[in-house]
Specification:
Layout lengths: L1 E3 L21 E2 L5 E5 L2 E2 L1 E2 L4 E2 L7 H12 L14 H18 L10 H10 L24 H20 L21 H12 L3 H14 L2 H11 L12 E3 L5 E3 L5 H8 L1 H10 L6 H19 L8
Parallel strand pairs: 1-3
Antiparallel strand pairs: 1-2, 3-4, 5-6, 7-8
Helix pairs in contact: 2-6, 2-10, 3-5, 3-6, 4-7, 6-7, 6-10, 7-8, 8-10
């Protein structure tokens, strides 16, 4: 086990001089990472045991230590919005412990995995990536319409998912022309996606949950997790190619925090581009979405040398 120690340790609360982060790794016998405040390990609030980070995720452990190093009072440690990495890591740790005790939790009708899978499946019928604006009227101004932009951004993501992640699945737009009620995906599509989520490793499933709740899109979340997961090997090297709108093969671009955030906020960006931003609202939401996706990348990525 490697212990990462934040330097301030929440003791010098009244100090006005910030202490630069300095992480001191101590090699111990067990095969996990923990974060310590002096001799006390940061604990999982659900399990009431030390928070254990898999050995393949040293970057996550370092980021967790930095997160605690930036807290200036013990009260801040009780506010989940100030410790997003700790909260998502605690949930993934709890799920991994549950999975170790029950390999069939997703089909048992109870437990964390069952709750996550069934909650996320409800987002499929109102997926942000699949909600397209109506076609522009014939007398509309020339140029790319909102619907054209949505289709252009969604097409490569949907192509990747239906070819590599959920082969043979058909994902259709959730809003028909002139309709205000979403169109449900077919039972076969829902069954395939549900089975895929039920089989994800614990850290990937929790990362998927955080991304869906942040961006309101299961498709974008799945694309982001597949891009950065240390276990979902889908031939994502730089030589991978995909089909473009013209049917020609072209080099695939990596999907990161910026690309995922833009795909989830196309309509907002379109409207603010025309009418302007609301200060302390749109700009805050924009940065918070990127912060949430950043925590997902840290949680699902790793060296690939740890246990699932």
């Amino acid at each position: 086990m490697v212990r990462f120690l934040p330097t301030n340790r929440l003791q010098n609360i009244s100090s006005n001089t910030p202490t630069p982060p300095k992480l001191t790794p101590l090699s111990l016998s067990e095969n996990n990472h923990t974060i310590h405040l002096d001799t006390r390990a940061v604990r999982n609030p659900t399990l009431k045991t030390p928070l254990l980070i898999p050995p393949s995720k040293p970057h996550l452990a370092t980021a967790l230590a930095l997160e605690w190093d930036l807290l200036v009072s013990a009260q801040q440690a009780t506010r989940s919005h100030l410790i997003p990495l700790t909260s998502i890591s605690s949930r993934a740790h709890a799920l991994s412990v549950e999975d170790a005790g029950d390999q069939h939790a997703a089909s048992s009708g109870q437990g964390i995995r069952y709750d996550i899978v069934n909650t996320l499946l409800r987002y499929l019928d109102t997926d942000t990536l699949l909600c397209w604006a109506p076609p522009p009227p014939t007398n509309a101004q020339p140029g790319e319409s909102l619907r054209d932009l949505q289709v252009r951004i969604a097409r490569p993501i949907l192509a990747f998912l239906t070819q590599r992640v959920w082969p043979g699945v058909e994902l259709k737009p959730t809003l028909d022309d002139g309709s205000i009620l979403p169109t449900s995906q077919s039972p076969a599509t829902r069954a395939v996606i549900k089975g895929w989520m039920a089989g994800l490793p614990a850290w990937e499933l929790v990362g998927l949950e955080r991304a869906v709740l942040a961006g309101k899109s299961l498709c974008v979340a799945a694309r982001l997790v597949c891009e950065w997961s240390e276990y979902l090997k889908l031939d994502l090297g730089p030589s991978a190619v995909e089909g473009g709108e013209d049917g020609k093969a072209r080099r695939r671009e990596r999907v990161g925090i910026e690309q995922a955030a833009e795909a989830c906020s196309l309509e907002v960006r379109w409207q603010t581009g025309r009418w302007g931003e609301v200060e302390d609202s749109h700009d805050v939401d924009k940065e918070d979405l990127r912060r949430q996706f950043g925590s997902v990348v840290l949680v699902v990525s790793g060296t690939g040398h740890g246990a699932r």
